[in-house]
Write a structure and sequence with these properties.
This protein is an alpha+beta fold and about 375 residues long. The protein has helices spanning about 5-20, 30-65, 130-155, 165-190, and strands spanning about 70, 70-75, 75-90, 95-100, 105-110, 115, 120-125, 190-195, 200-205, 210, 215-220, 225-235, 245-250, 255-260, 260-265, 275-280, 290-310, 315, 320-330, 335-340, 340-345, 350-355, 365, 375-380. The protein contains four helices and 24 strands.
């Protein structure tokens, strides 16, 4: 009914009641009172009907004005992985520092730093003239001893001469041969040769300087096959095994995705750690032995699991984790509903949800800190 019509009706009824009461009838007659009561009842019914309409309009207007704008996040299933970080050290089995076995003057350096060398290649020669002179002298003596031995042998075979003379000649010859072999071995130790293919990283002495077993001569490095070793806390025993995923971060920029090659079987009693080894197959650019790297080792994986941004998770006074989800109430209105969850491991801003959420229920994202349980909401894409 139109509000103006309602007002007009109410005024008409009230006016009629007043005129009736002012007529010639007795002021307290039954007819007059009944008529006045009926008129007032009609006015009340009209007013009550209007009040109900107004309340409905106000309720609708209030519900619109009190809706809180929110955005939502739709959870999905996937694989959740947790990693922990440790420092590792790049190493190679082919990195050798070479020393002189016999002391001597550095006579000749045949390579330069940075040169590629092959296994067995001569790198440095030490002075061995004294040894060479001794070998020459012994060879001269050996020639004579050999001649005497051969003559004595022929005589012995003809049953001429004594056995003692024959054995002495033979012993003299063999002794000189052994002495020459010994000196030749010492001469060989006066040269420095490459123990494997690689690069000459460092030449320590200069030509003319004295070389000895206490001072290094050269360093050879081969980077074809390098590996990483790291010490891992014993708290991860049983969680880390060969074949687990690992990321090797070199110089805080280059990342190599690989797996753990070997897990040590021994706990170091000094620092309560065990060793892991990661082979880096093939040549790896920009690495050098003893380079410090960061290892991200996968110690936990969960497939077909739900994980959500950690920022969406709140905690009540009892320590219970919860989120706000979107539900529809009995009046078919969208409302925020507090949902208790059982959260698990966290990594890089993501939290594994053990229990409490499904992929069919949207979670309130932006605006989650402004709503309360049961508040009416309006979902926006902002």
């Amino acid at each position: 009914m139109n509000p103006k019509a309602i007002n007009y009706l109410a005024l008409t009824l009230v006016g009629a009641t007043i005129l009736t009461s002012c007529g010639g009838e007795e002021p307290n007659s039954i007819q007059k009172l009944v008529s006045e009561r009926d008129s007032l009842r009609e006015v009340r019914e009209v007013a009550e009907a209007r009040i109900i309409e107004i309340n409905a309009l106000l309720s609708e207007m209030d519900s619109v004005s009190e809706k809180i704008l929110v955005t939502t996040f739709q959870p999905d299933t996937g694989t959740f992985k947790h990693f922990f970080e440790v420092y590792g050290n790049i190493d190679t089995d082919k990195a050798a520092t070479l020393y002189a076995e016999n002391p001597g003057i550095v006579q000749q350096i045949l390579v330069s730093e940075g040169d590629q060398v092959r296994k067995g290649q001569l790198l440095v020669k030490l002075d061995s003239e004294i040894l060479a002179s001794n070998i020459t002298e012994l060879r001269t003596q050996l020639e004579l001893a050999t001649t005497l031995y051969e003559k004595q042998k022929r005589l012995w075979e003809q049953n001429v001469g004594s056995e003692v003379q024959y054995l002495e000649a033979k012993n003299r010859k063999e002794s000189l041969e052994n002495s020459i072999a010994t000196l030749q071995e010492q001469t060989n130790k006066s040269t420095i040769r490459a123990p494997f293919d690689g690069v000459v990283d460092k030449i320590f002495p200069k030509t003319g300087e004295m070389a000895s077993g206490a001072s290094p001569i050269a360093r050879i490095v081969n980077l074809d096959n390098v590996y990483v070793t790291a010490e891992v806390s014993e708290r991860y025993v049983g969680k880390v095994k060969g074949g687990d995923e690992v990321s090797v971060i070199i110089n805080r920029s280059d990342t190599i995705q690989t797996t753990i090659s070997r897990v040590g079987s021994f706990i170091n009693p000094n620092n309560r750690t065990f060793e892991v080894k990661i082979l880096l197959s093939g040549k790896v650019a920009n690495v050098k032995p003893n380079t410090l790297v960061v290892l991200k080792i996968n110690d936990f994986s969960a497939t077909q699991s739900i994980s959500i941004p950690s920022s969406l998770i709140m905690q009540d006074g009892q320590g219970q984790d919860y989120v706000f989800v979107v539900e529809t109430n009995g009046a078919n209105k969208l409302v925020a509903r507090k949902k208790a969850i059982d959260s698990g491991m966290r990594y890089l801003g993501e939290t594994l949800i053990k229990n409490g959420l499904t992929t069919s229920q949207p979670i309130i994202d932006k605006g989650s800190r402004s709503v309360r349980d049961g508040d009416q909401i309006e979902v926006t894409n902002i």
